[in-house]
Amino acid sequence: MAAGRASIAFILLVLPVLSESTDPGSPMPCGARLVALTVVTRHGDRSPLTPALSREFWRGTLPSSAELQELAAGTVVHRDPPEAGAPAAPRRAVHSAVGDGVFGTLTRRGVEQMRALGGSLRAELLAPRLLTAASRGCGVGPGGASAGAAERGFISAHLEPAQLALFSTDFPRTIQSLQALLSGLYPPGTRDDSSAPLVINASHTDRMLPQPEPAMPTPRQREARALEEAVRASATFAAKEAEMAPLADRVLRALLLSRALPSARALLAPDTANAPAVAPIDAHERAPHAGGPSMVAVGTQRVHWGRLAELVMCLREHGLLARLNAAARAAAALEPAAARPGSDGAAARRELESLAGWELRDVRGAARALGDASLGARADAPERDVGITDADVDAIVQHAAWRWFCVLRAPRIADLTMGPLVAELLVGAARAAAAAARDAAAEARARAAGGGAAAMAARAARAAACAAPSARGARGACERLRVYSAHDATIVGLLAAFRLGAPDHWPAYGALLRVEILADADVGGDDGGCSGFVVRFLLGGQPLPFLPGGPADGARATGVAHALPLDALLVWFGVKHEAEEAVDADMAADAERKPRTIDDVAPHAHALGEAPAGGRGAPGGVASARPGPEAGRDEL
């Protein structure tokens, strides 16, 4: 423990060598350097979770088996096996949002979306820059780099598995999204075919979801559920739900009229305990037409806003709203005729029945077949109150986001639902900072003993050591980038738990939350050197401010906008002791490895005057290691 405390303290006094570069992807003030990066992504575009249209239609949007096999090549998914001698754990319940292979499944569009995201991240993290403090008009402390010294990218251009730590929920779409991102981050030609596969850790699904649906809820999860129900029972919540009820009614009617949705039941919350939506809707009760959809009375039940939002978003993303609206208006025009007896009514009823396959036909052709010019006009009439507009979709998605933020911004709920993941991220940040501080100190000692050339040689030797196959078991000492492939709710939950002032909108497919651990020259001193580490969060490339009443209250100012000292976050979230233990474990592991530190390799590198042959590694500084509480489980 004493060693861990010493390392955490040393982080706040780390030497100026860490202030020589800047994050390749976002603006940095003078002296700031990225030492570790965690990204939390939402999966790519998917088919709707709610069964809508036909399975055949959505199956046509999915990648082929061959495409999925190509994505999975070079990766392996690890799930925790039961410990020897331990009683068998209860079988995990299948999460209601996991998907069935057609619905809730990553589409071809989603694959390309995540591949492009990986390519963008690669370009950002590989960008070479002139990163000395002097070149940016900043003072350079003792041991600073010479002006104009070029810095290599944050990650290596050629895959070095020790630089990456990969996590995903155990959902096919998130695992495949991560594989697609990796195909852009390290495209063909940047991986060794003979190297061991990259490990995707899918063992921590429950901690990555605000509503994990475990087979046996923990006391924390039961308390969170009770508190969520209390929030939804508030007068403010009920008033907002009542305000939105007419929109839900109108949109649900359009979905039913168009035959996009076979039954309203799929969008109704089964009960208040399991569903995140409680709005009553005043849907129309009527007898179903022969062969038509099953329409039910739902006036006393509750619409599932999350399901409604994801469905209309999927329909809009795939360009289906115009066709849906035409079908809904045609069906609305046919309803009076279908109610008439005789042959005219029978023909109208047959046409209504055929609209069940509306995505494969031209609704205006139905008007011509019936000889009814008014039907075609009705299908084209945007002023009629039938159909779903872009504004409707935006309002539904905005309301679904409001509901989540309303619940998760309650501090106790945020801590109960996202606390374990928050702790994992912060402990990982502390380990990354401690490792970077140790390497910076060793590099500075090499510089003092042999000058700048010795320091550069020591850095190169460390990079070469991290590139070696044996580095993969180094408990994260060489880790640079950590990726979590998760869900919209994961990102919303983290924004709430960290008390970040993010806009109350729903994270889009492929949304990316960045957690940056930075060495900041201005924290803890005014000598122009780097005296501490800070953490900042970005969503969509924009830094997020901390809200009042959170960890920013009383924290000392930093030299990085919207960033807080790492030590302040560890204390505020109550994980400093956990971080110290994790740092202790890392230091013990470092002591057992050969070469152990830059101090061990620097003399040899200095004698050579250059980096060892074949070294492709990233420059000095190492990044985030795996979280302390379950380090053994994460070491896959």
TrEMBL record:
Annotated GO MF terms: phosphatase activity
Domain of life: Eukaryota
Keywords of this entry: Hydrolase, Signal
InterPro entries cross-referenced by the UniProt entry: Acid_Pase_AS, His_Pase_clade-2, His_PPase_superfam, Histidine_acid_phosphatase
Region of interest: Disordered: 602-636
Signal peptide coordinates: 1-21
PROSITE patterns: HIS_ACID_PHOSPHAT_1, HIS_ACID_PHOSPHAT_2
Family according to the record: Belongs to the histidine acid phosphatase family.
Protein known as: Acid phosphatase
Species lineage: Eukaryota, Haptista, Haptophyta, Pavlovophyceae, Pavlovales
